[in-house]
Specification:
Blueprint: E1 2-4, H1 10-20, H2 27-33, E2 39-46, E3 49-59, E4 62-70, H3 79-93, E5 98-104, H4 108-116, E6 120-130, E7 133-142
Parallel strand pairs: 4-5
Antiparallel strand pairs: 1-2, 2-3, 3-4, 5-7, 6-7
Length: 144
Amino acid sequence: MIRRMEPRDLEEVAGLEQVCFTENWSYRLLEAGIHSPYDLYFVWEQEGRVWGYCCLRLLAGEGEIQRIAVLPEYRRLGVGRKMMEAMVNHAIRDRAYAISLEVRAGNLAARKLYESFGFAAEAVRKGYYHNPPEDALIMWRRGL
């Protein structure tokens, strides 16, 4: 089930960051984020364990999906889709007019998920990622 992230989730989510990202967020950054007035953190908890988490920033009528991660052993079970759905629906409820995100150009599974939610690539940030080096695609869903 999806729910708002709480301080008790920080250790598990920090571990999830280590597993899912080569350029990961620190415990302190995550802790600051859950107290930010602009950021919404959600976790997918099942069987007493955090399987995934996501972060949506809402500012000045725009949403930005900052993070979405699912532990490798729980991918392709619909967890990422449910978290995307929660973030998009929350942005719509908050009257955002658009949502953006960045994704590694080579992450075809993530790109396919985002496209299924109406996101389209609009720009490229050359050499944005470093470990390994890769371009970032900037994707938008406008007119929410």
